[in-house]
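Re: that chain you flagged

S.,

Sorry for the slow reply, it's been a week of failed gels. I finally had a moment to sit down with the sequence you sent. For the record, here it is as I used it:
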Amino acid sequence: MNNLEQEYNEWRGKVLKPCVEKYGLEESPTRFYTPLDLGEFNFSEKVGFPGQYPFTAGEEPFAYWRAHARTAAKIGFRPDWGGGGGVGKYGGFGTAEDYRDYLKLMHSMGRTGGPNMAFDLATQCGYDSDSPQAEGEVGRVGVAIDTLRDFEVIYEPYVGDLDIDRVPSNFTINAPAAVIIAMYIALAEKRGVPLNKLRGTPQNDILKEFISRGTYIYPPRPSLRLFRDTLVFCTEHLPSMNITSIGGYHIREAGATREQDLGFSMAIGAAYVQTGIDAGLDIDSFAPRFTFNAFGGSMELYKEIALQRAARRMWARMLKERFGATKKKSMIIRQPITAHIGCSSTTLQRPLNNFARAVVGGIAAGMCGGLPGVYPPFDEPLGLGHSIEAVQLQMDASRMLIYETKITEVNDPWAGSYFMESLTDEIERGALAEMEAIEKMGGTVAAIENGYMSAAIARSAYERQKKIENQEEFVVGVNCCTGPNELEVTINRTVEDPYDPELKRTAEERQKQVLARVKRERDNEAVKKALSSLGRNAGDEGANLMPDIIDCVKHYATLQEICDVLREVFGEAEPQV
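Prediction finished late last night. Pasting the C-alpha cells below so you have them in one place:
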C-alpha cells in the first residue's frame, strides 16, 4: 500500500496535474479509484455471495425470472404487464365501471395480471365522491372507491382461473389502507374464498406520507396504530398477503438526496418492524412480508447501482443485528423495481428523450441485480395513463437488455470494484448518519412531529432546483441544448387511448349517482350500528380495529363514513410546514 500511495502521488503530480493545467482547470473533471480508496476490505463481510448475507451482491443466486428466460422469450416475455400470474400494470381512472372495462381491455390483449390500483386523490385522503372536498378530483388520478360495491364491480372480470385466490392485487393507498384491505377481505368472503388464499400488496406506508406525498389523514401516532392493526390482522389471518410496500421512491421524488432517501426509508422500516414486535409478534412471522416499492432514482447510473447495493446490506444488517431476525426472507429487500431514473428525471420538453433516459435506468437495474425494467414510459410527464405505444417501447427495451445485451448474465458485475465498493460504502455512511440523527430525536415518529425530515427534504429539493436553474447541473432539452435547430421528435399514435377523456370528464357525476343509490338501498340502521362500534373501539388503544372496519364495509358503509368516525377519535393531522 505504501508503494502504491507513492506511485499514486507521483502520477497525480507528473501526469494528472499537467493535464489539468493544460486545459486551464482548477481540478480534474474525473476521478480514478485505487485500492487506497477502499483501505481494509473484507469481501465476505462487505459483499458476500449472491443469495447470502449481507446480500450486497443480490438477494438470490439468480433472479427467479432468469430460470425460464429462454422459454419466456419464445412466448413473449412481458417484464411490466404481469401476464404470468402476477399483478398487471399500475393504473386506474374514472368510476369502478371505467376501470373494470379498462381491465377487460387489458385481458383482451393478453395482459391478465391482477388489478394494480391507482386511487383518485379523494379516496387517498378518505373522502367520498359526493364530498365537497372531492369536487373536481373524482376519478382523475386514479379510480374512485366509495363502498364495497365499487370493489365488486372492479373484480367482475376476475373469475374462474383469474379469481382472487389465483391472482394477486396491489393497492397503492396509505391513510385509508385498512379500509381497502377490509374491502378485499369482504369481497373474498362473499365469494367464498379463504382468506389464507389472498395474495397482494397494499402500500400501507403511512409514515412516508408525512414527509413526501402528503395524503395523510390522522396524526402520526394513531396512524401508526392503524398500521399495527393491519399488520397483526394480516399476520394472523392473511399469511400470503404482504403488509406494506415501503416507498423510498416517493421520498426521493419529493426532493430528498440519495442518502436521505435511503436513511429515511430505513428509519421508517425500523419503526414498522418495532411496531410489530411491540404488538407481540415474532420478527420472522411478519418481516418476510414487508416489501419496498422502490428507492428513488436518477440519471446518475453509478450511484444508483451503489444505492441498491447499500440498501440490501443495510436492511439485512438492521434486521439481523438490531431486531434479531433469523430467517433469510426477513433480511432481504423485496421490490419490483430496483435501480431506475425516477419519474422526476423525465421532462415535459422533448418527451421522447425520456425513453433514452429510461434505458439508462434499465441498464443500472440490470447491473445491480434487478430486472432491467425500462421505467417509466416516455410519456410519464404528459399525464396519468401511459399510451400503449409508450409501454410497448418500454417492454421491448427491457427485452433487448435481457436477450440482446445479455446484461443480466452476470450477478453484481461491480463486486470488488475499487470504485463501486467505495461508492457503496459512501452512500451507506450517509444513510446511516441520517438514521442516527433520527434515533437521537427519539425515532421516526418524533422526527416527523418535529418537522426534521420534511424540512430536510424541502432544503434538498430547493438546492437541486437551484443547481438546474444556475446551470450547475444540465438537463438536455430543458436548460441546455435548446437552440432553434433542435428538433421536437414525436411518434404516431396507433392505438386508442385506454383512458377515455370523456369518461374522466363525466366520472364525478356518474360516481355520485351510484353512491346515492347505494346509500338508499343499504341497511342504514346496520351501518349506523357498525360505525358506532368502530368509534367505541377506536378509543381503546389495545383494540384491533380491523374486525370493526370489515363489518362496516360489509354493510356498505362508505370510505368517508369510516374515516370520519376515526377522525372524531384520532383527530386530523396538521399539515407539515
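What I noticed first: The longest helix spans residues 418-440.

Talk soon,
D.
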